[in-house]
Amino acid sequence: MRQFFQFTCMAALCSSMLLGCATATEYIELFNGENLDGWINHGEEKWYVEEGELICESGPSGQYGYLSTEKFYDDFELTLEFKQEANGNSGVFFRSTLEGTKITGWQAEVAPPGSHSGGIYESYGRGWLIQPDLEKDKALKMGEWNTMKIRVVGPSVTTWLNGTEMINLEDEKIGQGKGAIALQIHDGGGIKVRWRNIHLTPINE
């Protein structure tokens, strides 16, 4: 009887722990794989859905373009996959606001080899805040699917590319920021990037 009681207690504890873990890892699908519901297009560049993938592509004007979430997100862990075609110069903004195509906020860089993917750039502000060490650039797989993870908690930002930690930054101004998640297409024309599996897990600490 005693052994049965101990087994029952352990089973209940494990069940409780698993339930707790499930609750902690619940995430929001920012992209539903079907359309652009929940997103706002800023600019004249092309954003569309094809075979379950979100695609950004330069339009005739070849200017900056952004696709931002309707909702704001403060502290979170964001994971997504991207595949660069052609130039592939893009980025993932966080705690950002837009007026037309002028964006205020911070970007985790997505760029061709040698262009600091995973680094943090402040548009219309201080410029580069931090760039990854050069040897980490080999984590990028140009023309293939890449997984990027961005963790933002208060003033702390960490990025990973295909499992490699790219940067870790503490910045007071970022800690004060509020805004949306936004995907970027760089100016210059000839750019095409595919995105999929865009998941955000809110963090409450």
What does this structure look like?
The chain is mainly β. The chain has a single domain (about 25-200), classed as Exo-inulinase, domain 1 (Jelly Rolls, Sandwich). About 15% of the residues lie in helices and about 50% in strands. It is built from two helices and 15 strands. Strand 7 and strand 8 (about 100-110) form a beta hairpin. The radius of gyration is 19 Å and the shape is globular.
Q: Please tell me the total number of domains.
A: 1
Distance between the termini: 42 Å
Give the overall shape, derived from the CA principal axes. globular
For the largest beta-sheet, the strand count, sense and barrel status come to: 8 strands, antiparallel
Which consecutive residue ranges, at least 5 long each, have pLDDT under 50? 1-24
Number of E-state strands: 15
- Beta content comes to over 45%
Overall pLDDT metric: 89
Quickly give the structural class.
Answer: mainly beta
**In angstroms, what is the radius of gyration?**
19 Å
CATH H-level superfamily title: Exo-inulinase, domain 1
CATH topology: Jelly Rolls
Number of helices: 2
CATH A-level architecture: Sandwich
CATH C-level class: Mainly Beta
